[in-house]
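seq:
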Amino acid sequence: MRLYLVQHGEARSEEKDPERPLTDRGASDVRRVAKLATEAGGVMVERILHSGKTRARRTAEIWAAELGIAATEADGLAPMDDPSVWASRVATEENDLMLVGHLPHLARLASLLLVGDVGRSIVTFRLGGLVGLEQGPEGWSVWLALPPSR
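struct:
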């Protein structure tokens, strides 16, 4: 099973817009990573789930359009949510899955899956970037990392 973790694209500041939609650059970065991942990286998923926050929802919609599937809001993906919730959920997943969310949640989830410790910084995320984890017989490993080119 492969798990794709996507940090939302660059968003407007809360002072400029409390809804925090993606900036033009943020949307462009997400499109570029999604296109590269699907064309060159062979990224395919059964489901795309996002936190429901505007910046994550829009990021998920861009990925959904590229992959030709729907994106759905899910609980437990907010910035400060407990990563053990999704660590438990992905343990029962059989199909590849994409989670679109925020820091520090995504980084803590990756650390929990990879080394069993949410406090260890194992993976560095970038706005609009993708990290692909793969579950094998001996546990999880990183198999893909695509930051937006700047």
